[in-house]
Amino acid sequence: MSRWIKVDEDINQYINDHLAPEHPVLQELHKKTSVMEGAGMQISHEQAQFMSVLLKSIRANNTLEIGVFTGYSTLITALALPADGRIIACDISEEWTNIAKPFWAAAGVSDKIELRLAPATQTLSELIKCGGSGQFDFAFIDADKTGYEDYYELTLELLRPGGLIALDNCLWGGSVIDLDDQSEDTKALRKLNDKISSDRRVQAYLAPVGDGIYLASKL
Ligand SMILES: C[S@@+](CC[C@H](N)C(=O)[O-])C[C@H]1O[C@@H](n2cnc3c(N)ncnc32)[C@H](O)[C@@H]1O
In this structure, are residues 107 and 78 in contact, taking their beta carbons and an 8 Å threshold? Predict the structure, then answer.
């Protein structure tokens, strides 16, 4: 029988003990966000390190982010990109993204980040209209769960073959297997997880990192 390990608190701690140290500006941003309402929306240091490895492995340069909040995942992405790399970062909240900006500046990566304040479907559709299809290497989807399927379809169009989509929260605290949970968010994630698993346009794996990151590599 193949080996399988349950990631309990101790194993999770062991994983965390083996992460590269958190960049000082990321540490400050965690501290600043931790006292805010909605702090739980921010990705963890562990997830960020995982993303950083992926971004560097595929030599990502041109990336998309759907869901910025206070800018942590945007910042880890910017730090993983080469000097001429760029991120089109989509969000609808001026209040939250204004918190991000001084941290991006402190880390010296503001030039790489183009923030678009509009519903992400609008921004992504505009990019397609302006010839962006096939131009992006990586997309991180971490916004409203009922919008995920649209973001998946639009980013898939915008990605080059071999490009990677990472969708956060796809295990949704385990709710995806709790059939008593019929909330709109859970149903949307379940439906999309099923769709991705049989989607012949991608090679995909639902990684049990953080709250579950579905990785879909465009074929
Ligand atoms: C889970 S948080 C993102 C967390 C972020 N990735 C991080 O690591 O800190 C979700 C974000 O999605 C944004 N959002 C919600 N609906 C959106 C939409 N229709 N278009 C773009 N962004 C949206 C929210 O304003 C919020 O900032």
Answer: yes
Q: What is the DSSP letter of 172?
A: G
The backbone torsions φ and ψ at residue 46, rounded to the nearest 5 degrees and listed phi first, read -60, -50
User: To which CATH superfamily is domain 9-218 assigned?
Assistant: Vaccinia Virus protein VP39 (3.40.50.150)
In testing the pocket of ligand 1, which one of 63, 76, 91, 140 has its CB within 8 Å of the most ligand atoms? 91
What is the gyration radius of the CA atoms in the chain, in angstroms?
Answer: 17
pLDDT tens string 89-137: 999 999 999 999 999 999 999 999 999 999 999 999 999 999 999 999 9
- The number of the ligand 1 atom at minimal distance from the alpha carbon of 140 is 6
- Please work out whether the CB of residue 69 comes within 6 Å of at least one atom of ligand 1: yes
- Give the CA dihedral 61, 77, 212, 37, nearest 10 degrees: -150
DSSP calls for 7-39? --HHHHHHHHHTSPPPPHHHHHHHHHHHTSTTG
Cα–Cα distance, 193 to 81 (Å, whole number): 28
70 lines ligand 1 (CB under 6 A): yes
Return phi, psi of residue 141, to 5°: -110, 115
